[in-house]
Fold this sequence. Notes:
It contains four helices and four strands. The chain has helices at residues 15-28, 46-56, 73-77, 88-93, and strands spanning 2-8, 32-35, 38-42, 65-71.
Amino acid sequence: MRILVLLNPTNKKGTKAAYTELRKFLIKDGYVLLQSEVFMRITNNRKGAEKHLNRIKPYIPNTGTVRIMRLTEKQFCNMGLYQAEEDYQESIVGINDYIML
């Protein structure tokens, strides 16, 4: 199971510091930056995902929005990436269907 945390900060006063604190917590807690303002973490099961969701709740800022999605491996593997041109890293390493961790 995977957890996706989608951040959407606003320009209100105090928002930048609150979101910086949330980002630091996510990185410290083992989340990986999937793309700008999107963090991802792998968990073993639904119970583990609930544990991590409860750990995030105290860090959620009062402004902006934080969306959290739980996805199964099958749902995550069906995600597509569409872009106009090849990324620099893809041109060097190549494109694989999946990466073994």
